[in-house]
Write a structure and sequence with these properties.
Elements: E1 40-41, E2 45-47, H1 50-55, E3 57-59, E4 62-65, E5 68-70, E6 72-84, E7 88-94, E8 101-106, E9 127-137, E10 140-150, H2 155-176, E11 182-186, E12 190-194, H3 209-220, E13 227-228, H4 229-235, H5 241-253, E14 257-259, E15 265-268
Parallel strand pairs: 1-5, 2-6, 8-10
Antiparallel strand pairs: 3-4, 4-5, 6-7, 6-9, 7-8, 9-10, 11-12, 13-15, 14-15
Length: 271
Amino acid sequence: MWQNQGGGFNQSGYGDQGGGYMSPGGFGTPQQSQERKSRTRAQNIMPSTVAQVLNADQTDDKFYQGDVELSQVTIVGLVRTVKESPTRIDYEIDDMTGPPLEVKQFVDNDENLPEEERVQAMRENTYVRVYGHLRSFAGKRSVVAFKMTPLTDMNELSCHMLEVIHANITLSSAQSAGGGGMVSHNSDAGFSAMGSGGGGGSTIPGLSPLQSQIQLIIKNHPSDTGASIDAVCKQLRSVPEQQIREAVDFLSGEGHIYSTIDEDHYKATDG
């Protein structure tokens, strides 16, 4: 499906895993450099492959792709194994770019909880999207998931791989231009570089990339009643709603936006 066209992607050391994506999955995985003078943290969720997670540079408990620190990632893959316990569900997720990745989801499935209130495990041999924090313990890397959703449309798998490629191109371009290159997720336009000289429109100094994106979405919304939080969530599908609401509360508290017909609709104060 995703074939290596004349070496366009760097080899990561993993061979073809029996079908699926033909690319080893590095998508231009950067070579480890000498002393890095400055690094930028990806403050939002970075679309990644298993190979990128396994090949990321590590310094202490931090992980880097090029000069960008990976804190939160999203991957899409096939559930190979599931192990359930009252406090944790362990998965092996395989996206065909490397060996299956261990994903841990902490839960509170006490036996006294009603069945309908328990966190349900994903089924084996189904495709899922994982959102989580990259971790390493005893030399083994894993993702601690804060959200997992089953794929309902296989186009999302193709879309995810395009987002991975776009994110890497954006990072490379931003770093080559010397702009620092923060990356933030936008479900409509993939990823945009936000930093010095980046972003789709004028941004307010002092805001995080996510706060800037939400402020611009609200500012550009055509409705007289303002943009609803639901509308913002639809444009930023890969960002958890709680993070969006926290950013909206911050923007409102700082006077960058204001509520209109109710507490779920906002307009920007500068236009």
